[in-house]
Amino acid sequence: MLKRPVWNVAGIALALVLAANAPAGSAGLGAKDEPIKLPMLEWTGQHVSTHIAGQLLQKLGYKVEYVTAGIFPQFSGLADGTISASVEVWLNNTGDIYPKALAAKQIEDIGSLDLATREGWIYPKFMEQVCPGLPDWTALNKPECVQALSTPETAPNGRFLDYPSEWGSRSATILADNNMPYTAVPSGSEGALVAELEAAEAAKTPLLMMFWGPHYALAENDVGWVRMPPCKEQTSEHCITPPDVNKVVWSGFGAKWPAAYILLKEFKVNAQEQQKMMLAIDKKGQDLDAVVKEWVDGHESIWQPWIDAAKK
């Protein structure tokens, strides 16, 4: 005679209660007690993107730690896992470590940030009177233009204000490729670049410099963009084009923090929104965390689908 199984009713009821009260998606969080380490690089836009990602990861249930890193050295940290993810990687200026780590599958590119970008040579718009023919690059070779941009440290060449030396110098290569009579002079920092642009605009002092967008300074200064000279070689060292901006993670990230991996794959940043936040931080002196929190609190309809996707 077959016996009916004896069910532990109390145990089943307890299990159902626990399941009902378990946080959504908790099974996919992975190592939620180990912090996800995000690098803070040298520019405010990246700080904004990183802190938006960080606050959303915290909403999902993770611990987040922000670590100071350099634009090129960060890839060594990503390769060995001491940095977990970098959410704003400009692919036109990654240095030597990135391609090697990518080829060795120590890091993983998880897709575009969808950040509409611009990069190249800019000048205050009044320069079009000083160098007739701008924005075409050939106008920069005219003697009156070179002379206007010449300084004691660069004479007889004109002065080209370049990125800080640790960011790399594609402009110096392009100037040499096209035999342009200019000397690339590295700036000290992003702040120094902006200060020179603002000073040139205020004093109507000639200036030619390397710059990028989105950036709050472009909303407050009237600039033109040079139509760039031809590329001697179709490589990142010899060309400046609007860069792609992607998200990169340590190769073990997805296995260790599964829901975070999905969230960061979904994560996007709008350039205009980023620029507004940069203006509030850099120009108005507002706190980074507070500015980002205000945006996050006011844009739930944008990021909630990313959270929902990560919880599935």
UniProtKB/TrEMBL annotation:
Keyword Signal: yes
Keywords: Signal
Domain spans labelled ABC-type glycine betaine transport system substrate-binding: 35-297
Coiled coil residues, start to end: none
First and last residue of the signal peptide: 1-24
GO cellular component: ATP-binding cassette (ABC) transporter complex
Superkingdom of the source species: Bacteria
Pfam families: OpuAC
InterPro entries: ABC_Gly_betaine_transp_sub-bd (IPR007210)
Keyword Signal carried by entry: yes
UniProt GO molecular function: transmembrane transporter activity
Protein name as catalogued: Glycine betaine/proline ABC transporter, periplasmic substrate-binding protein
Gene source species: Mesorhizobium amorphae CCNWGS0123
